[in-house]
Amino acid sequence: MVTDTNDKKTVVAAGTPVAVVGEPVKKRGSTKATRRAQDVEKRMTKTMSRLSRAVDKGVNKYIDRRDKSDNKRKDGGLIDAPQNIVSSAARAAADVTPMIGDLMKLVSTKESRKALRRNFSSVPTIPFM
Questions:
Q1: What is the pTM of this model?
Q2: pLDDT confidence of 9, banded at 50, 70, 90?
Q3: Domain residues of the chain, as ranges?
Q4: Are 63 and 126 in contact (CB under 8 A)?
Q5: What are the φ/ψ torsions at residue 3 (nearest 5 degrees)?
Q6: How far is it, in rounded angstroms, from Cα 11 to Cα 21?
Q7: Angle (nearest 5°) at CA 28 between 43 and 110
Q8: pLDDT digits (tens, 9 = 90+) for 29-59
Q9: DSSP E strand stretches across the chain
Q10: Residue 9, C-beta contacts closer than 8 angstroms, at least 6 positions apart
Q11: How far apart are CA 77 and CA 66, in angstroms?
């Protein structure tokens, strides 16, 4: 900040934030109803991101293995295609596995567990023979 000595006014550079002293900043929150929707959206975004990264890694691995097979021998990419596809699919599946946990966290909430207990408390037990 630069102050002008002639009239003691504060000169602020363009684009810099100015804080007003004394006025409290109101925090923007979310209502209880929308919090759950925000949590679902956040987890679904994380899951989709994980899935797209896994597919990208799998495809890149396939392309690398195909090129390596092509360089080794004539028609190598075509001959080794099944093996290369399986290998790259295994890589993608390994990267996608934590996605199942993300989805389970999405469905397993305190409310859903209570509802499950409430619904199954009335089911009679089957005696073992």
A1: 0.55
A2: low
A3: 36-108
A4: no
A5: -105, 140
A6: 17
A7: 40
A8: 777 778 877 888 888 888 889 889 989 999 9
A9: 2-3, 10-11
A10: 3
A11: 5
